[in-house]
Every structure is written in C-alpha cells, then in structure tokens.
Amino acid sequence: METSPDALIDGLTTESTVIRAAKDIAYGSAAGMVSKVFEHPFDLTKVRLQSQVLDSTARFSGPIDCLTQTWKKEGVRGLYRGLPAPVVGAMAENASLFVAYGEFQNLIRRVTSRTADNKLPLYHIVLAAAGAGAVTSFILTPIELVKCKMQVQMLVPQSSSISSSTASAAALPTRALPGPIAVFLSVIRTTGVRGLWLGQTGTLIRETGGTAAWFGTKEYVASVLLARRRRTSALYASDEGEVGSGGDEKNKETGLRPWESAFSGACAGAAFNLALFPADTVKSAMQTAEELRPTTSTLPGGTVNTTPNTPKPTFGGTFMAMYRAQGVRGLYAGCGITVARSIPSSAIIFLIYDGLRKHFG
To answer: Which of 12, 302, 335, 326 lies closest to 159, judged by CA?
Structure first.
C-alpha cells in the first residue's frame, strides 16, 4: 500500500513537533532547576512576608529582617526549606511553559495562515504567552501549595498542650517537620484531591498575565538589541567599505549573544512580577492560612476542636481581608525582594535556555 505525500508530510511534521517538544522540555527543565536553586532563599522570604499580612502582629519587619532571623534560627537548611517541591515545580513550570508557548504560536500561525518562517507580531506573541501561562497554572498550583506550606513550617505555633517551659527549651530547628510527600498526602487526606488546587485563581491570574509580560518583554527587548546590533554592523561595514555578507554573517546577526539573552531575560523577570503581584500575595496567604491561622486546634488529651461553620477561604474574600488589614502595601508584601531575585533568576533561565537551543538546536 502506497503512502500519500500528504501522509509523509504529516508524519514528518508530527515527528519534528515531538522532537521539538522534547527539546523544550529538556532545556526548560535544566534552566528552571538551576534558577530555582539560586532564588529559593528569596522566594522563602517572599512567602513568609506574604503570609503575615493577616496576622495581628508581624513576625518580620521586612525582607532583610526575615532573612536574618531565618539564618539565625534555622541556618542554611532553613533558607532552603521546601526546596525539593519548587525544584520539581520549576522544572515542570519551565518545561510546560516553553512547550505550550511554542504550540500556541503554531496554533496562531495556522489560524492566521502564516508560515513557520514568518515572525509573529508582538501582540500574537503576548497572546501565545498568556495561553501558555494559563495551561501551566494548573500544573503549578499543587506544587506551590506544598512549597508554601513547607516554607512556613517553622512559623507554626507550638501545640497549646505543650508547656511553655518545654517549648522554650526546644530549639526550633530540632522540630520534626514533614517532608514534601508527607505534606502532599496530608492535603489529600484533609481536603481531598481538589484541595491541591487551593489558590488556583491567584495562580491563574498571575501566570496568565505574568507570562504574557514575561515572554512579551523578553521578545521585545531582544528584538531591540538585535536591531541595534544590525544597525551598528551596517554602519561599521559602510565605514570600512565592506560589500555584502555571507550566510555565516547573517546567522550571527540573527542570533542572540549570551549577554543579550541574559539582559532581555532580566527585564522579563521584572515585568513578570510587577504585572500582577497582588494575585500571588493572595494565593500565598490562602495556601498558608491553615498552618498560620488554623480553624482546628488540639485540646489537652488530644481532642481535635474544629471551629464550626468556618467558610473556606476564597480569592475575593482573602483579597478584601488583606486590603482591609494593610491596604495596597499589604498586597505588595515581599514585592521588592521578589523583583530583585527575579531579575538574575530570569536572566539565568533565558541564558541557559537560549544557550542550549543555540548549541543543540
């Protein structure tokens, strides 16, 4: 039986799509893992600052105080508390982001009848990025839930059944704390599988708008840098009296240099976090509420007391509660240190991703 030319083309397209997706997963995972190890202490600081907005008394006066107290009381291990979950999350996030981003671009090209060689306009790139962020948010929420719960473990008050003398004698770092698997299973036992997506609204808003800003800013800044380099090269060639250019020279002009990837990525990191930061603040508060403001308590003798008719936290309700508690400032708790760490972190991601694509295709 003969295979039609169309079927051969479809087969090649499918194969190339699978290979490209596999490469995006590998490159995105590597970039995400390295960047997360670098930024985790700052992310932990952000979550702890966000989680105290609804507390009557703040535990930390600011990011520097939070980092200092964590270092003194918990050491290096405390600064990297909950790291396994975000490392897995960063690998999954970046892999799914880059794969979905590419597929949404392909979808837009098919709808607008563009070929693969035609560069999409910026508004189409932003649209593809927003779609990629929306898809990724569903993967990211359960991972971030486990991460946030682990990051505030040392802030959870000791059980009321423990005497004050015993509590003061116990050093905080020696407390037996559950790991990521134990936290994950605990969430399922207490709230069911659906409970893993607590804070999904905040993640969806943050990832959809933030990823649009992330990829949009990266592509825009990269295009500006490339255009600037081309103009400079053209002026230099004109001054030197050079005529024409070979294929190799053209390839050099169209590819980003390492510092250009890093710089455009740094700008993208700042844009991502400035875009919709309050959504992330509300999400963190919702995901740590049960630990820091529990609706259940353990009475002497081990009896569990549940506060009756306690409504589940909602995105809108938590947002308004945080706004009433500390206003706009509370919604941007931890924003400064988040933007500061996202600039080098995002630079690392695109430096690694673009570098791997350049060397391996």
So the answer is: 302
Considering only 57-71, 168-182, 213-227, 273-287, which range has the smallest mean pLDDT? Answer: 168-182
DSSP secondary structure string for all residues of 282-297: HHHHHHHHHHHS-SEE
Q: What is the pTM of this model?
A: 0.78
Q: Which amino acid is at 211?
A: T
Q: How many residues does the chain have?
A: 361
Q: Please calculate the CA angle 158-80-36 and round it to the nearest 5 degrees.
A: 140
Regarding predicted confidence, which is higher, 161 or 272? 272
Q: How far is CA 361 from CA 56, 59, 203, 355, 356, in A?
A: 54, 49, 32, 10, 7
**Arch. (CATH architecture) of 8-157+179-236+259-292+314-360:** Alpha/alpha barrel (1.50)
Q: How far apart are CA 180 and CA 185, in angstroms?
A: 9
Domains of the chain, residue spans: 8-157+179-236+259-292+314-360
What is the CA 212 to chain-centroid distance, rounded? 13
d(CA 111, CA 106): 9
pLDDT in tens, 80-96: 876 777 788 778 888 88
Which of 97, 33, 79, 114 lies closest to 349 in space, CA to CA?
Answer: 33
What whole-number distance in Å separates Cα of residue 1 and Cα of residue 270? 57
Distance between alpha carbon 238 and the CA centroid of its chain, in Å? 45
Can you list the alpha helix ranges (DSSP code H) found in the chain? 5-51, 63-79, 84-111, 122-151, 164-169, 180-191, 200-240, 247-254, 258-275, 277-292, 315-331, 335-360
Structural tokens at position 36:
């997360």
